[in-house]
Amino acid sequence: MARGGRLLRQRVHERSGGRCHYCGIEKKLLTIDHVVPLAQGGTSYITNLVGACSKCNSAKGQLSAEVFIRNVLPGLILARNEKATRQRGG
To answer: Percentage of the chain surpassing pLDDT 90?
Structure first.
């Protein structure tokens, strides 16, 4: 990755505070997500980039952030909570 790319990635990570922009989970390593996907005319400017956990970034795919948050994210969070409950034996 070019030097400017590393700096941009670092700034996005710092801005995220170590939390996924979408689900809020704390992760040491976050992926970089385009809020408006490049395929939908989004840019790679920092204003269109957020830190996201790999699960949210993968599930979002080419969806806009608005569509993902409204239609997909609630199911991901529910599944994560159910898994955590099962692991605790509840």
So the answer is: 72
